[in-house]
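Following up on my earlier thread - several people asked me to post the actual chain instead of describing it. Fair enough. Here it is, all 184 residues.
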Amino acid sequence: VEGVDLESSKLLRSIATTSLAVIGVAFPDGGSGSLGGFGHLVPYGESEDAIGVVYDSDVFPQQTPGVRRLTVMAGGATRGGDAFLAQHSTASLEELALRTIREQTGVHDPPTAVKVLKAHNAITQYNVGHSAARDTARARLGESAKWLSFAGASFDGVGVNDCIAHGRKQADAYVSNEYHAGRL
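Reply from S.P.:
Thanks for posting it. Predicted structure:
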C-alpha cells in the first residue's frame, strides 16, 4: 500500500494490535466426556494471565477421536501483549496452560502433547478511530487504486462470518470495477 498511497499506508499502520500466546494441549480422553460447549473466557481480574480456553474437542469432535484438545489463550491487550510474551518462556507458558486447565476445567490428566505459539500483533484492537482510519484508507485507495482492496478481521469484524461476508463484498467490488473498465 505504501507504494500506492502513503497516507493510506500510515492510516492502516495506525490500527492497533495486541499479542498473545496460544497454547494447544492434548490429553487422552479417557471417556470423561464433553466439557459442554465452545469454551470460556476469563474476566479481567480473575486471572493474571489467561484470557480464555477453547474446548476444541467439543467444537470439532470428529477431528481427533479419543483425544481431548484444549486451547488456552494468554496475554492480550488487558494482560500486557508483547510485554507479556517477552516475560514468558515456552516452558512457563506450558505450565500456565496446564494450571489454567486444571483450575478452570477440572482436567488433571497429564498431557500427551503441548504446543506453544507466540502470536505477535495477532488481534486487532477496535479502538476509537479504527473505523475512520479504515474508511479513509478505503476511500483514498478507491480513488487511486481500484484494483487494490483489503478485507479481514483487522478491518470489518473479528468473526469468521464477518470475514467471509466482507471478503465477498471486496471481491464483488473488484469484479465490478474490472467489468466497467472493460477488462472482463
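The mean pLDDT is 89. That should answer part of your original question.
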